[in-house]
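Methods — Computational structure assignment.
A single polypeptide chain was analysed. Its primary sequence is given first, followed by the predicted tertiary structure written as structure tokens.
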Amino acid sequence: MRPRCRTISAAIAAFVILIVCWTTAQSAEFTVEKTDRGVTVKLDGQPFTEYLIRSGNKPILWPLIGPNGVPLTREYPMRTVAGESHDHPHHRSLWFTHGIVNGIDFWGESANGGEIRHREFAEVQGGPQARIVAIDDWLGHDGHKVCEDRRTLVFHAADGQRIIDFDIRFTATDGPLVFGDTKEGSFGLRVADWLKVDAPGHGQIINSTGQTDAAAWGQRADWVDYHAPHDAQTLGIAILNHPSSFRYPTYWHVRTYGLFAANPFGKSDFTGTKSQPDGSATVEAGKSLVFRYRVILHEGDEKAAHIADAFAAYAKERFDGK
């Protein structure tokens, strides 16, 4: 019986090794939970971000936890942290809005500005990826509806990176829709103070054409990366603009003080000219406009994180038959 026992024991050992290897090879697991505030997203049981249905005048993602559990966006004004900058309180972690929509300011949270009001979640799902689909109404300060958006956020992880795909479709539901020519927009985030180029940060901005720091402002590019050393490591955030996104490649409203935004509408400000056609865009009643971005939270600088390769792979992805 001993040889048979050894055979069975060897088979069991091999089976255990197979299970361990299979488990190790599995992708990350995302869990999502609806709350009164929105939806929390966890990666392998640890906090990643929260989709807040309202902060200021709009939905946002906050916090944005990068590799090794380090927050990569500023806490203010959602939370007060000693020593953190308090400028531009409308810069709320990660958001999508714009400074002139049918003549209304949705960017600056002014008293006469607009509000992006969450209507409903169409989908909230976890698993190897997390997926949140939300529908919002854009309202003037008097409550009249300007338009609506349907935003799809997909969270995934690979090779130590945390990735958020942010696709947003605007529909001119209540007459023609005009996005005005202004630098104050559109898909943006505010980096943590240690990430910014200006003191007290030690960061660097670089885009796909090699322009850096202040020289990257107002330029058109496939992607931009913002990275800095932090506690004996380098961490960063890249935003990639998909070729099917409206008016690709976008202009970038990226500042050395920490604002990091993609804005395809601010031609006059970015180029310093008032030539026609300007940067505004009109959407006919009943028609739609689509924007697509990928956010990568990564270790290392843009070279170590292979951001150029990540863009090449992202650009090959097709949406709606494109």
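Note: The helical segments are 2-25, 267-271, 307-315.
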